[in-house]
Amino acid sequence: DQQVKQNSPSLSVQEGRISILNCDYTNSMFDYFLWYKKYPAEGPTFLISISSIKDKNEDGRFTVFLNKSAKHLSLHIVPSQPGDSAVYFCAASDRSNDYKLSFGAGTTVTVRA
Amino acid sequence: EADIYQTPRYLVIGTGKKITLECSQTMGHDKMYWYQQDPGMELHLIHYSYGVNSTEKGDLSSESTVSRIRTEHFPLTLESARPSHTSQYLCASSESRDRAPGELFFGEGSRLTVL
User: Fold this and answer.
1) B115/B105 Cα distance (integer angstroms)
2) DSSP character for B73?
């Protein structure tokens, strides 16, 4: 039962433009959400997170938006850079499960020069 | 910043062989995890440990086993590998203090191919 879904397997964007990655979840108990970035032949690295008590968190070029009523979150990258080309995983967790992460299948972002 | 190491990075073996994937971290983290991931798919938690002599199975059933005899070391073993075990195995650790809940540090992964 996949509780975290990233319905777009890939995204191509021109350098300098905005990248928007979407993620939906089904478990209403989730109260913490994270985004990870993964380059080929490397492990995922933490990018940004958001608590369910917030609807927005910003860190430099990266902003995560959370819409709890829609069970939807998105990651905005502005402006997109060639080094942002990677796979982005959405993950969610909740206190009742000791914050063990449930991951989406990832979205491959390609930034075109 | 993250100091978590996995060996081997790549392994190709025949069916029936016993293999151990090594994972070590030098951050003193109590919590360690093994995830399995196939291309284009989500990461699935197969084992986790909250400290020495503590191991639990994750959400995805796996024929592998783990041990946690030392804080820094969390090896994964397959007694008899089969082609269905072909996958990437990712080790991770976490420390909740001063970190987002659930924030994990991952190793670079071990890609296993069973012929």
Assistant:
1) 30
2) B
CA distances from A14 to A58, B9, B90 (A): 22, 33, 31
Q: Does B5 touch chain A (CB under 8 A)?
A: no
Whether A11 and chain B come into contact, CB under 8 Å, resolves to no
Question: CA of B23: how far to CAs of A80, A113, B5, B8, in Å?
Answer: 34, 38, 6, 9
Contacts of A69 (CB under 8 A, 6+ apart): none
From B98's Cα to the closest Cα of chain A, the distance in A is 13
How many CB atoms within 10 Å of residue A96? 10
**pLDDT tens track for A32-86:** 999 999 998 899 999 999 999 999 999 999 999 999 999 999 999 999 999 999 9
Phi then psi for residue A7, to 5 deg, are -80, -10
How, if at all, do strands A10-14 and A107-112 pair? Answer: parallel
Q: Amino acid identity, residue A34? A: L
Chain B environment of A42 (Cβ under 8 Å) = 108-109
| Best CA proximity match to B22, nearest among B62, B58, B76, B87 | B76
Segments in chain B below pLDDT 70: 1-2, 96-98
Over residues A13-39, the pLDDT tens digits come to 999 999 999 999 999 999 999 999 999
Cα separation, B106 vs B92, in Å, equals 4
pLDDT given for residue A111 in this prediction: 97
